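REVIEWER CHECKLIST
Item 1: Sequence provided? yes
Item 2: Single chain? yes
Item 3: Sequence as submitted:
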Amino acid sequence: MRYLVRMDTLLLSKQEAARVLGLSLRSLEHLISRQEIPTRKIGRRVLIARSAVESFAKGQDSDNTPEMEPR
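Item 4: Structure as written out by the authors:
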């Protein structure tokens, strides 16, 4: 059975964020290490704002400004 992510959840685990983006956990961790997707640490948990995941998917920085495409 597939695990579904609730659409009203504001913060996602790394596993949930990877699933939403269609990436492997390792690929997501690589993006996090390059600071392309910001995280929040609460206790031992590393969480990612749904808005940051959506902004990344749309090709925007987390501050909602479009990224510049290379020429």
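Item 5: Key structural point noted by reviewer: DSSP finds three helices and three strands in the chain.
Item 6: Recommendation: ____
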